[in-house]
Amino acid sequence: MKDLLKLKTSISEEIESILNEQVKIEAHASALYLAMSAWCDDQGLDNAANFFAKQSDEERTHMLKIFNYISDRGGRAISPEVTNIPVDFDSFRGLFETTLEQEMFVTEQFNKIADKCMRAKDFVTFNFLQWFLEEQVEEEYVARRILEMFDVIGEEGTGRWEIDRNLVKVSYDHE
Ligand code: FEO
């Protein structure tokens, strides 16, 4: 019986559980960015609304990538419950501060998972995580560049409009 169970799954319970936690974090991020997109749309900040809608889609893709990985390795992927998504936000700049905080938190989480994989000698999952770690460099970079725009342009007068207009120009092209 023990051997049969071993044949069924090739990830440990510990790794399965921490990956399912990450599925939940990505689902939460996706819902949060979608809420930010709606707020921006309501404020007439069209590019920012598109930026966050795209970000939301990407987070869902991340979620599914991990979800499918758990299943493919014979684990049990859990469809997460997402709660506590705000409707209102304090400020335009605040959205990007929250974004940077969120992405720094996610980077920390992936580092923790990678550390656990190393300790458990799960090099297959460790390898799977590399894509996410690289993705985090890009996500943090973009959030920081946008916050710099707030510092340089400022939100007074037509500043908000100017920042929104320039959002499309921020990209990570270090490949
Ligand atoms: Fe899926 Fe923005 O990390």
Low-confidence stretches: none
Tell me what portion of residues adopts beta-strand conformation: under 5%
Number of helices: 6
Rg, rounded, reads 19 Å
Tell me roughly what share of residues is in helical segments. Answer: over 70%
Give the overall pLDDT as a whole number. 94
Number of strands: 0
The geometry reads as elongated
Which compounds are bound in this model?
A: MU-OXO-diiron
Q: What is the element string, with H for helices and E for strands?
A: HHHHHH
Largest sheet: none
Distance between the termini: 48 Å
Based on helices, strands and strand pairing, what is the structural class?
A: mainly alpha
Structure, explained:
- This protein is mainly α.
- It is 75% helix and 0% strand.
- Helix 2 runs antiparallel to helix 3, helix 2 runs antiparallel to helix 4 and helix 4 packs antiparallel against helix 5.
- The protein is elongated and about 65 Å long.
- The mean pLDDT is 94.
- It binds MU-OXO-diiron (FEO).
- MU-OXO-diiron (FEO) binds next to helix 2, helix 3 and helix 4.
Summarize, please:
It is built from 6 helices and no strands. The protein is mostly helical.
